[in-house]
Amino acid sequence: MRHLNSNYGGKTFWSFGTSFSRGVGIIFDPRLQFQLLKFKQDDKERLLVVNIQIETVKYSLVNVYCPNRPSERKTFLLKLKHFLYPSTNFILRGDFNFVENLRKYKIGGNLNKGDLGLKEINILKEDFSIEDVFLNKFPSEVETTWGNGYVFCRLDRFYVPTPYLKHVINIEHNALIF
Questions:
Q1: Residue 112 belongs to a domain with what CATH number?
Q2: Which residue range forms the structural domain that includes residue 51?
Q3: Per-residue three-class SS string for 68-113
């Protein structure tokens, strides 16, 4: 990460996991002028919150890596609401490790498994009036963000407050490999 930090030029924030799991980061464009207000992470390397101010507007940027185990995932998502502040402009993104719509965003494998965490994310979406940017912008497209050669799923998502959707021009998902 030091290599990325020194060569990239923009500010980066990290919560490191093991070499095979966990760990999240937030990378800022070097041209973005902002003031860092607060930076926090959990002790499991699954959550990173960076609070910034751009001009007079405050934002809370939240990146998550949900647990693979369904029971741990549900607990994690229930606790996540304590890191989200409805009075701020927050953006939630991450690897949620479950599929919101098994029929549409899971290809292969058992189509009756893989959505545990859906109830909890739906509560967050309703409580905080957030929506999945990709689903809003491309409702008829099918995209997967993870695959093992046999099963392919859309696990990574980007949620923003509903009023922000009109400002989103495009969204891409690209792997960042070190």
A1: 3.60.10.10
A2: 2-167
A3: CCHHHHHHHHHHHHHHCCCCCEEEEEEECCCCCCHHHHEECCCCCC
